[in-house]
């Protein structure tokens, strides 16, 4: 019978890095989303991107009844939003905020992945 040989070898400990957040929500965004979800016909909000504008991509928010098969869920301060799986590469690491001024009220995104954006601010591109 052949003997089994074993040897011990020192290995470096692997360091686990924290997973980068898909997206974060500011307190104002959380408040506005809570107001939206308090409506009698409240549904889920899915965030995605569409091909639009002169730079290629624009954010798209839509109400949905249930998550898509590959949607990612972001939960913060009791608020849940969905991120379309096709938009993950474009959105990862972004911050969603709610801004109100004299002329409008809207969600805005601070996105570290943007490489170019159009002059009007409607669309962007990532590389």
TrEMBL record:
<dbReference type="GO" id="GO:0051537">
    <property type="term" value="F:2 iron, 2 sulfur cluster binding"/>
</dbReference>
<dbReference type="InterPro" id="IPR050322">
    <property type="entry name" value="Fe-S_cluster_asmbl/transfer"/>
</dbReference>
<dbReference type="GO" id="GO:0005739">
    <property type="term" value="C:mitochondrion"/>
</dbReference>
<dbReference type="InterPro" id="IPR017870">
    <property type="entry name" value="FeS_cluster_insertion_CS"/>
</dbReference>
<dbReference type="InterPro" id="IPR016092">
    <property type="entry name" value="ATAP"/>
</dbReference>
<comment type="function">
    <text>Involved in the assembly of mitochondrial and cytoplasmic iron-sulfur proteins. Probably involved in the binding of an intermediate of Fe/S cluster assembly.</text>
</comment>
<feature type="domain" description="Core">
    <location>
        <begin position="23"/>
        <end position="122"/>
    </location>
</feature>
<dbReference type="Pfam" id="PF01521">
    <property type="entry name" value="Fe-S_biosyn"/>
</dbReference>
<protein>
    <recommendedName>
        <fullName>Iron-sulfur assembly protein 1</fullName>
    </recommendedName>
</protein>
<dbReference type="GO" id="GO:0016226">
    <property type="term" value="P:iron-sulfur cluster assembly"/>
</dbReference>
<comment type="similarity">
    <text>Belongs to the HesB/IscA family.</text>
</comment>
<dbReference type="InterPro" id="IPR035903">
    <property type="entry name" value="HesB-like_dom_sf"/>
</dbReference>
<dbReference type="InterPro" id="IPR000361">
    <property type="entry name" value="ATAP_core_dom"/>
</dbReference>
């Amino acid at each position: 019978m052949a003997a089994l040989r074993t040897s011990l070898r020192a290995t470096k400990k692997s360091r686990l890095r924290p997973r980068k957040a898909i997206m974060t929500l500011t307190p104002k965004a959380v408040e506005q989303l809570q107001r939206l979800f308090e409506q009698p016909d409240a549904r889920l909000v899915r965030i995605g991107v569409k091909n639009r504008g002169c730079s290629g991509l624009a954010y798209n928010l839509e109400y949905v009844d249930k998550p898509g098969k590959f949607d990612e869920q972001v939960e913060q301060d009791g608020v849940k939003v969905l991120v379309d799986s096709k938009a993950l590469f474009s959105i990862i690491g972004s911050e969603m905020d709610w801004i109100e001024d004299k002329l409008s009220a809207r969600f805005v995104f601070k996105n570290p992945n943007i490489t170019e954006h159009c002059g009007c601010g409607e669309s962007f591109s990532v590389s």
